[in-house]
Specification:
Blueprint lengths: L1 H34 L7 E4 L5 E4 L4 E7 L7 E11 L2 E6 L4 E9 L2 E9 L2 E11 L1
Antiparallel strand pairs: 1-2, 1-8, 2-3, 3-4, 4-5, 5-6, 6-7, 7-8
């Protein structure tokens, strides 16, 4: 009788250990998946003047920027982008690079776009879509 109790007790302890391992694995999976946060830049940003930038999750962008407020033609930029702290680095497909500080407050993106070598344009863009 005593041997039967030890066998039953051993099986119960084995099941308890397996159950605890399964619970710990599930908690770890939930915790690790909750740590991933997509970039807040993803999606399309635009303003009322027609300027817009679309950030794609593969690290590319497309931007349509009016170079001056009086100008009716926009310049289209496309290429790759990367984020280093609060600096956006746009590597434009024509070989140029645009570095700018950025900030998001609520659903608005603030950045300074380099229109030419010595001229910049302040942009305040609204998050239009993801």
């Amino acid at each position: 009788m005593r041997n039967i109790f030890l066998i039953c007790n051993y099986d119960f302890m084995g099941l308890l250990r397996k159950g605890m391992i399964a619970v710990l694995a599930a908690v770890a999976a939930v915790f690790l998946s909750a740590c991933y946060e997509p970039s807040p830049l993803y999606g399309k940003w635009a303003d009322n003047y027609g300027n817009q930038i679309t950030f794609i999750s593969d690290g590319t962008f497309v931007a349509k920027i009016f170079t001056s407020d009086a100008d009716e033609s926009a310049v289209v930029y496309q290429g790759d982008y990367s984020v280093i702290d609060n600096v956006l680095v746009f590597s434009v497909s024509d070989g140029n690079s645009i570095n700018t500080e950025w900030d998001i407050r609520g659903s608005m993106l603030y950045l300074e776009w380099a229109v030419s070598e010595n001229r910049t344009k302040q942009l305040t863009l609204y998050h239009v879509s993801k």
